[in-house]
Design a protein that fits this description.
alpha+beta; wza like fold; Outer membrane lipoprotein wza fold like; 2 domains; five-stranded mixed β-sheet; 4 helices; 10 strands; cell outer membrane; transmembrane beta strand; Poly_export; polysaccharide transport
Length: 211
């Protein structure tokens, strides 16, 4: 009798799980919101502040409102005078001018200088390498960074990687575009012509070889 009850309970659990999975599989999560990089070319690159960065705000003649602040995950900081100042996605110079405008309510003609440490930057400015990289990573972009620099940062490719079928995904004018990469030629053959410039927001996808 007890065995029959246990078997019946197992059948009910399996049936319930099947119903739950079938109902869940019919629902789709909304597509991720597109946040393309603000950098359109290497020459136009300017560092943008992101969550996790350390922001030093110096207000000339007012040390009591100066200080160093860590950018919160929501992209904001809180100072001694003003709470919830949005800073993510701004250049240090843009942020300095915005803070001057805010502090003008409390101080007479404030002069603000902003410097940044940590250099995490927003997600839209990072380069992501996924697939058969030795160490798939999100890399903080640096001006004039190339494909070779990125490969060094991720430790190269795995032995199963098909580097010459790798793809670079880039957002241009609001549209997603794909470019072929010849990473094997670059790393194994030393073909410098396969080295290309990277831009913030690039995604490199390295597939697995079929043989």
């Amino acid at each position: 009798m007890e065995k029959r009850i246990i078997q019946l309970m197992k059948i009910l659990v399996v049936a319930a799980c099947g119903i739950l999975l079938s109902s869940c599989s019919s629902n789709k999560l909304p597509q991720a919101t597109l946040h393309p990089s603000k950098t359109e070319s290497i020459d136009s690159y300017r560092y943008l502040i992101g969550a996790g960065d350390s922001v030093n705000i110096f207000v000339y003649g007012n040390p009591e409102v100066s200080g160093t602040f860590t950018v919160r995950p929501d992209g904001m900081i809180t100072t001694s005078l003003v709470e919830d100042i949005p800073v993510s996605g701004r250049t240090p110079t843009e942020l300095a001018r915005e803070i001057e405008a805010v502090l003008a309510t409390f101080l007479r003609e404030p002069i603000v200088t902003v410097t940044v440490g940590g250099f995490v930057g927003p997600f839209s400015e990072q380069i992501r390498v996924i697939g058969e990289a030795a160490q798939p990573l999100a890399i903080n972009y640096k001006k004039n960074m190339t494909l070779l620099d990125v490969m060094i940062s991720v430790g190269g490719l795995t032995e199963f990687a098909d580097g010459n079928d790798a793809v670079l995904v880039r957002i241009e004018n609001g549209q997603q575009k794909q470019y072929s990469l010849a990473i094997d030629d670059l790393l194994k053959q030393g073909d410098i012509s396969a080295n290309v410039d990277m831009l913030p927001g690039d995604i490199i996808i390295v597939p697995e070889t079929w043989f």
